Amino acid sequence: MLTRAEVSKHQSRDSCLVIIKGNVYDLSSYLDVHPGGSRIILKYAGRDATQAFEPIHPPDAIEKHLPPELKLGPVAEANVGIPPDPALPGISLAERTTNKNVLSLLRSVVNIHDFEHAASQILAPRLFSVFKAGADDEYTAQWN
């Protein structure tokens, strides 16, 4: 098992370790095939990327898309909890998506503008900005 201190020494394209959900992954060979590009992975190289990873990936993304040999095992520290989103202090993703106010917000959706407003209230700001920006070329956002 690797410690956070050991993982932090691997922050390059040649040796890129990342912690996700308490597990250490060697993503060096995955950088060039990651659909979101290598830059975002390298941004979190040597660190815990859980908070950035979870809002934009399905729960089974790692199991579906990474070969099992890239998983090096759990990080060797007792405290591997996910820090809360600083934009929504004390409110977890689960709480944001099950809150009664969220359900009433979604029931009020009549058109795309209502949907955008509801999404801006429910999603973490960083995640909402991904949807709002329309990815790389913004064509879909412009067409919509």
From TrEMBL:
The keyword Hydrolase does not apply. SMART domains: Cyt-b5 (SM01117). One of its GO terms (molecular function) is metal ion binding. SUPFAM superfamilies: Cytochrome b5-like heme/steroid binding domain. Residues 1-76 form the Cytochrome b5 heme-binding domain. Pfam families: Cyt-b5. Gene3D superfamilies: Cytochrome b5-like heme/steroid binding domain. One of its GO terms (cellular component) is membrane. Keywords: Heme, Iron, Metal-binding. InterPro entries: Cyt_B5-like_heme/steroid-bd, Cyt_B5-like_heme/steroid_sf, Cyt_B5_heme-BS, Cytochrome_b5. Belongs to the cytochrome b5 family. This is Cytochrome b5-like heme/steroid binding domain-containing protein. The lineage of its organism: Eukaryota, Fungi, Dikarya, Ascomycota, Pezizomycotina.
